[in-house]
Design brief:
About 40% of the residues lie in helices and about 15% in strands. By secondary structure, it is α/β, with parallel strands linked by helices. The chain has 2 domains: about 140 residues, Alpha-Beta Complex (Aspartate Aminotransferase, domain 1); about 260 residues, Type I PLP-dependent aspartate aminotransferase-like (Major domain) (Aspartate Aminotransferase, domain 2, 3-Layer(aba) Sandwich). The protein is globular and about 55 Å long.
Amino acid sequence: MLDEYWMEAGELEAARAARMPGWGGGTPPILVRGKGALAWDKDGNEYIDCTSQAWSLNLGFNHPRIMQAAADQMQQLCHVRSSFDTYAHLALSKRLTELTPGGFEKHVSFCLHGSLAVETAMKLALRQAPGNQGSFISLYDAYHGRSFGCLALSWPHPNNAFLGFQGRVVRVPQAYCYRCAFGLTYPSCDLRCVQFMEEAMDKAVDGRPIAFVMEPVQGNGGMIEFPRAYYTATAELCRRKGILLIWDEIQTAFGRVGTMTAAELYGVEPDMILFGKAIGGGFPLAGTVSRADLQPLEPGDHGFTFGTFPVSMAAGLATLEVLEEERLLERCQVLGRQITARLNELKDRYELIGDVRGPGLMIGFELVKSKETREPAPEAAHQFAVEGMKRGILYGESKYLGRGNVVKIKPPLVVTDAQVERVLKVTEEIAGKLSAA
């Protein structure tokens, strides 16, 4: 095997040096095997994966139903160009229109990466905007990908070299109630952030706004769930203003929040829902579900050589079947309540933990230097992840490059009760150690 060759020939460091920088930080363990919520590295160390590998493995590593569906498809067709249909493509398209909210006809578009799903939605939204005038609206701390088209929608890191090539986006404060941009308290704030968004649409955008793009639960921004009223109010605002509402559910859809989609959980019918990550069960797959009455893209506007990869389509169908047949949505809800309850107990004991957030298995807890000042503690969040890895737990961190102060617990939905208990025990150990330091 290649890993054995590198080990024996001393080529491992040369191979790492050949990889372009910028794809991650530090020197992570080399993972060689995974099963369910567990992963093993080249040295035989075992980890409980609370990152689900970038929140993509909702059914864990190598679920047998998904592996079998993909293998069966590979025996028939591995690749066809996008101008040809396959049964897997057609069946998954139909199934997605049935599972996503909205009492209207829908169209489905596929690609292999979340950023491209966002760009698909942006293109489609621009087709509805006469003369392409106006701007997209996005939220503070948003994350919608890093490709050229969607980078402007995301929270910009310092020293961003690509500003001159980004499109028109107006960012507005989100309903981050733990750190309200207006210094107010919910619900007495009367959703000032929504009022401000309307003012921005009227006064800060040159031309009519094109669309409002939002994550229903902000992932990279800090695991931020908004008040229920915020979802209703922003949807009503978009309807009243006549602009499109685009929900980026690349992290939340297909089980992560305990429902098939967050739109279902919060009772909203967006004009477009973007999906990715978990739908492929470990195989690359993403796309959009949009209102069928939207003006479509013209031939030549859009298309990807591997955009309708049959193997991913078959894996996606199997993923949806397993979620329903194994009742994993219900399990996600139960585990989410259990974990957040225990984390809230830790919050009451330790000054370090300022806030605990859900829903489902999209869990994060915010680390602070003081509960009174709420000063962020990004160094502690990073140290939490480092200590977790030493103890066999892979925690996630918010933002990147050490700029976030939220620790994430987002294991696969197939995580066992014993594994959950182990995660919570280690979490308590580390919280105690860092609090005593």
